[in-house]
Design a protein that fits this description.
- This protein is mainly beta and 784 residues long.
- The chain has 3 domains: 176 residues, Immunoglobulins (Immunoglobulin-like, Sandwich), CATH 2.60.40.10; 382 residues, 6 Propeller (Neuraminidase), CATH 2.120.10; 54 residues, no CATH class.
- The chain has 5 helices and 48 strands.
- The strands form 12 sheets. Strands 2, 5, 8, 9, 10, 12, 14, 15, 17 and 18 form a 10-stranded mixed beta sheet that branches. Strands 1, 3, 4, 6 and 7 form a 5-stranded antiparallel beta sheet that branches.
- Strand 21 and strand 22 form a beta hairpin.
- The two termini are 18 Å apart.
């Protein structure tokens, strides 16, 4: 473990961060909450350094108590406390005091010979208390165990407001209840016998086939998202009440809640087969989990479920989840081919007969999407086939009536501005800063208006029709699947080329995927770079679907099948399926649930009968498409957004290819064509599967078929505005303000090092020297 300490007059007050250097994990900004810091300060990035308390005293500095202290705190309370005293050679000494987890606890700065640590009452976890004087430092540890009082039914907490359904219409409006669907929080369990049964179940549920449908075991979650919808299956098929519990493996957090049937079920007549985790509980649990525990291991989150019916309860069944110590930010832009937010087509089977094609957006933490591109009207108002710059500054979408026409949307904090382009571009590659795009025709088109397209140097030697191109976040590489070109079997290949934006020159083509010799339907496409630019994730098609071969395109419809895989940018020998993302466990077994029996549903896609294709969802592992990657690595992971037609628990269950509003009633039925997100270890390398089970992206429109999501940065914030991490700021830094909050800045504190997700040129710029500099931001390599 390494620290930075500086003398201030005779007594040294540690100012890790504001006076930080490149020497260790205790630093300011997004990673170090100063003593007494506000709740706005972000979580620290855990490292193995946090595992044990270590003394750095060189001349007799001591702090008592020396052993690990454990206190149990009730949520909302700031007691009990722990008082520490500092001595130098046995005599009281005025030291400076700090903590590394200001979100968990606060301590007075000093200088003083004693200081009292007070818990915040909103987050649990391991806290390092640091005392220092004259260049000497001592670290002690406190484990704060946060206990949330047992809950019986919805509490009326403001955080739970979006999770309470009062009308049937709320169940399918926008992103659904709480942004995840279902019927919302259940009522209070008033029957004493049922409460007793939940406390002492009659059996473990195995004989009743009790099992989770969603979320998946071993899912990796970021912080900052709406709480998930827990869904289950059992032979009894309905429940009178359930009990949910969340605990961390170290005991730093615990909560138990009992819930009777959600009141809205009395209106719908539906079964009690799913229930959300209360939002306030989810926030406290995920803010606690993911950090290091006293034994140096990551603190994971365990969810347990017990269900009751007819006075008998069964369970609990449990799953273990990992929480990344990072709060993801940004906006996801995605295609919707059945949205109700912009109705510009007729012929829908359900509702008022209208639906729309548009680009929608989700700001992280929202519970419903917003319209980004497209309006009500006719096909002329449709905007789809989009791409987005990694910076979040520009979006290009194709017009629905004239496919040779596109528009650029300039995205800013003040709003969105549309400019019709002189050149059409469907799914172009947009340069990271949004200044120009590479079209399928191989032209460089300046944005926003695309007045004069130019032909770059070197590209035609590899491809004369660039399929689904994508720039690396650095802008120095581009990946594409040639639709035509001088090489044999171009559509079965994926290339990466170097790109010089100053000279508009492409060079050094590298074949990174080659399916030559495989059936013609087997081919790669829809590539996306990981943040470090060293590897590419792509859509690996195995079946083209009803019209894929005739159109020569890579689709997600009418029986088209694919898995996601990745490869490096140097050769084609490390192509590896991302099995855990696709739906297989480490042993290669499919863990995705399927229906007990096929659903008999007559539905069509462009007139083709598709309701009979995999109608029991038995092949969901092969229904994953169109990946993109968040350009910033967070919490030790890269985050992949992809389209999937898999079951969403028991909320979206109709046959996988029933997603055309003209062929199936998508007002009465929820299509499974949705967006999912999976974590991939930032330290992983192609040749091995570094992915993890995915989670459903909250807030996407529940009643629409959604696809091709781009997770990009927020429009950047100017200096002086509030922030959580440096990647939100135009100048790259998010640092402590005088009021204890965090604001955007143009320099690291006092010209010193950069925090996680702050701007860097090399890894040497990062305060934590175990970090890497990935895509211009410091990124942790620590995997929880």
């Amino acid at each position: 473990m390494k620290f930075a300490a500086f003398a201030v007059a005779e007594a040294v007050v540690l100012c890790f961060g504001a006076c930080g250097t490149n020497t260790g994990p205790y630093k300011g900004g997004a990673d170090l909450a100063m003593a007494g810091g506000g709740d706005d300060l972000a979580m620290p990035q855990p490292t193995d350094d946090f595992a044990m308390p270590i003394d750095f005293a060189a001349g007799g500095l001591d702090v008592q108590p020396a052993s690990l202290q454990t206190i149990t705190v009730v949520a909302g309370q700031t007691t009990p406390t722990v008082t520490y005293t500092a001595t130098l050679d046995g005599q009281p000494v005025n030291a400076g005091w700090s903590v590394d987890r200001g979100d968990v606890a606060a301590i007075s700065l000093g200088p003083s010979s004693s200081a009292t640590l007070s818990p915040k009452g909103s987050t649990g976890g391991l806290v390092n208390v640091i005392a220092g004087i004259n260049g000497m430092t001592v670290s002690r540890q406190v484990l704060v165990k946060l206990i949330v009082p047992s809950q019986n039914g919805a509490t009326g907490n403001p955080a739970e407001q979006s999770q309470v359904a009062t009308t049937v219409a709320q169940l399918t409006a926008g992103g659904g209840v709480g942004g995840v669907g279902g019927e919302g929080l259940g009522a209070q369990v008033v029957d004493t016998a049922t409460l007793n049964a939940l406390a002492v179940p009659s059996g473990n549920g195995q004989s009743q086939g009790l099992a989770f449908l969603y979320p998946y075991d071993k899912t990796v979650w970021p912080r900052g998202l709406p709480a998930p919808l827990v869904m289950w299956r059992w032979s009894i098929g309905d429940a009178d009440a359930i009990q949910l519990s969340l605990t961390t493996t170290s005991g730093s957090f615990s909560w138990t809640g009992a819930f009777a049937r959600p009141p809205i079920l009395s209106q719908t007549g539906g079964k009690f087969i799913r229930h959300p985790i209360p939002q306030d509980v989810w926030t406290m649990a995920t803010n606690t989990a993911g950090a290091a525990s006293a034994n140096g291991m990551s603190d994971q989150l365990i969810v347990s479920l017990t269900v009751a019916s007819g006075g008998q309860a069964y369970g609990p069944i449990s799953e273990t989840w990992t929480v990344a110590p990072a709060r993801l930010s940004g906006i996801i832009y995605y295609n919707s081919y059945g949205t109700q937010l912009a109705q510009n087509y007729t012929g829908a089977v359900g509702g008022n007969g209208k639906f729309g094609g548009a680009v929608l957006s989700i700001h992280v933490g929202d519970t419903s999407p917003k319209l980004a591109a497209g309006t009500n009207g006719t096909a002329a108002n449709c905007r789809v086939c989009h791409s987005v710059a990694a910076s979040g500054s520009s979006l290009v979408a194709q017009h629905g009536d004239v496919t040779s026409t596109s528009s650029t949307y300039t995205l800013s904090a003040s709003g969105i501005t549309e400019t019709t382009m002189n050149n059409g571009a469907a799914f172009p590659a947009i340069f990271p800063d949004g200044s120009f795009a590479l079209s399928e025709a191989g032209q460089l088109i300046p944005l926003p208006g695309g007045a004069t397209a130019t032909t770059p140097i070197g590209l035609a030697a590899v491809s004369t029709d660039v399929g689904s191109p994508a720039f690396a976040p650095s802008g120095t590489l581009v990946a594409f699947n040639p639709m035509a070109g001088p090489t044999a079997n171009p559509t079965q290949k994926l290339f990466v080329m170097a790109f010089n934006s100053m000279t508009s020159t492409f060079s050094n083509p590298v074949l990174v995927v080659d399916d030559t010799g495989q059936p013609a339907e087997t081919r790669p496409g829809w590539p996306a770079f990981f943040p470090d630019g060293k590897s590419v994730v792509f859509h690996h098609q195995s079946a083209a679907g009803a019209d894929g071969n005739s159109l020569g395109t890579m689709n997600t419809r009418k029986g088209a099948k694919a898995q996601l895989a990745w490869t490096n940018v140097t050769d084609a020998t490390h192509v590896t399926a991302l099995n855990q993302l696709n739906g297989k466990d480490a042993a290669g077994n499919v863990y995705l649930p399927k229906l007990p029996a096929a659903i008999s549903m007559s539905c069509t896609g462009d007139g083709v009968q598709v309701g009979n294709i995999d109608a029991d969802h038995g092949d969901d592992v092969n229904l994953n498409y169109e990946p993109t990657v968040n350009p910033v690595a967070s919490g030790g992971f890269a985050w992949v957004v992809f389209t999937s037609r898999r079951l969403y628990g028991n909320e979206a269950t109709i046959p996988p290819f029933c997603s055309d509003p003209r062929g199936v009633d998508l007002i009465s039925n929820i299509t499974t064509k949705k967006l999912w997100v999976a974590a991939v270890d930032v330290s992983g390398q192609p040749g091995a599967d570094a992915s993890h089970p995915a989670f459903y992206l909250p807030a996407q429109e529940l009643l629409a078929g959604n696809s091709r999501g781009f997770w990009v940065l927020d429009p950047c914030k100017p200096d002086g505005t509030t922030c959580d991490t440096g990647d939100q700021c135009c100048n790259g830094y998010c640092e402590p303000a005088a009021d204890g909050g965090l604001v955007c800045s143009n320099t690291p504190p006092n010209g010193h090092c950069s925090q996680v997700q702050e701007k860097c040129t090399t890894a040497a710029d990062c305060c934590d020297q175990t970090n890497l500099c990935i895509n211009g931001f410091c990124a942790s390599m620590q995997i929880p």
